[in-house]
Amino acid sequence: MTEIAVPGRTRRTSGRSATGRPIGQRSGDRGTGRHLASSYTDLTRRVREEGLLGRTLGFYLLLSAGLILALGGAIAGLLVLGDSWWQLVIAAVLGVIFSQFGFLGHEAAHRQIFTTGKTNDRVGQLLGTALAGISHSWWTNKHSRHHANPNRIGKDPDIEGEALAFYEAKAERRRGLSALIARKQGYLFFPMLTLEGINLHFASVRFLLSRASPAKSRWLELGLITGRFLLYLGLLFWVLPMGLALAFLGVQLAVVGIYLGATFAPNHKGMPIIPADTKLDFLRRQVLTSRNIKGRLWPTVLMGGLNYQIEHHLFPSMPRPHLARARQLVKAHCEDLGVPYTEVSLLRSYGTVISYLNRVGLTSRDPFVCPVASRLGRD
Questions:
Q1: What is the band of 20 on the pLDDT scale with cuts at 50, 70, 90?
Q2: Which residues make Cβ contacts (< 8 Å) with residue 159, sequence separation at least 6?
């Protein structure tokens, strides 16, 4: 048994986090686990009674219409400006619009918009794939695994990427240039996000082309992505000279990467990591690994509702307009149970993410130290 530190309290557990902030189930804590499971049932009942799981179709129709109008305005601006470096402003605006369509695709994947799965899938393919260029099937597959096991080693694909080390055991395996990058990865995080837009498109296509892919609408989505890029690139190179068109595309992709990355990063990065063999009830698994962003209107608009990350993880199908009320219920519920509820400002969350990544990265081996000499020095 080991001592563990959870924000606001110390517990004993059979598991230990790789970050120094481990969480887990105490060996004699089964009764508590049943109590928390029962309390989550009570919380769900309260949420249902208040109608917070009901659909808000009008909200999503208005939002979609507004974004489509904004997209039309950006295209009109592209055509009117012609050969001008002011086009890069249009590129940045398009990056924001495509990211907002990505938020809607994310909500469709969670069944937040319509009651039926088929309708949500079709809307997700239209908004997320045809307009944002991100495979609905790839995102649904990857994101469902994340929601089932947030921040769990070996289970959450969001902490298993190769570009950054999100927990110490992964950093310790880094060698050479990879280890050198890991040691400063917190400072490199936001600059690296400029490439995330390209990565999202690449990962989507790679998933759809893979024979092992479980995608049910493989050819439809490949057709939508191909058609989108042919139309988009064709328009850019028809209106703009090649150099400006490439700069336009680079700015638009960089804005998408920074915007989406900066929205998703505060949600879990720097929160406790769950060891692969540690058991946790659903409520603590979702609440302890998630972080909310303070504020109501502007963070909700800016982050597509993901500022209410705790409530989103507890009730993934809850429409965006109901998350603010759910926060009041969930926060009070967690306080009654003594379960830590994390909520910070957006800027503070970024500071936490940067310091956390640097701290994890420092555990990577010095790339200029000889492994044999290191072992001899310890003997």
A1: very low
A2: 151, 153, 166, 167, 170, 268, 273
Residue 124 is assigned to a structural domain of this protein: yes
Domain count, the chain: 1
Contacts of 265 (CB under 8 A, 6+ apart): 189, 349, 350, 353
Question: Among 120, 133, 153, 126, which Cα is nearest to 316's?
Answer: 120
β partners of residue 4: 11
Domain extent, residue 289, equals: 2-373
pTM for this structure? 0.86
Closest by CA position to 40, among listed 363, 361, 311, 367: 311
- Name the phi and psi angles at 342, rounded to 5: -100, 125
Considering the domain boundaries, does residue 302 fall inside one?
yes
Give the distance from CA 342 to its chain's centroid: 17
CB 308 within 8 A of CB 364: no
Q: In which element (H, E) is residue 261 found?
A: helix 242-268
Please check whether residue 379 lies inside any domain of the structure.
no
pLDDT digits (tens, 9 = 90+) for 265-320: 999 999 999 999 888 899 999 999 999 999 989 999 999 999 999 999 999 999 99
**Is 378 within a domain?**
no
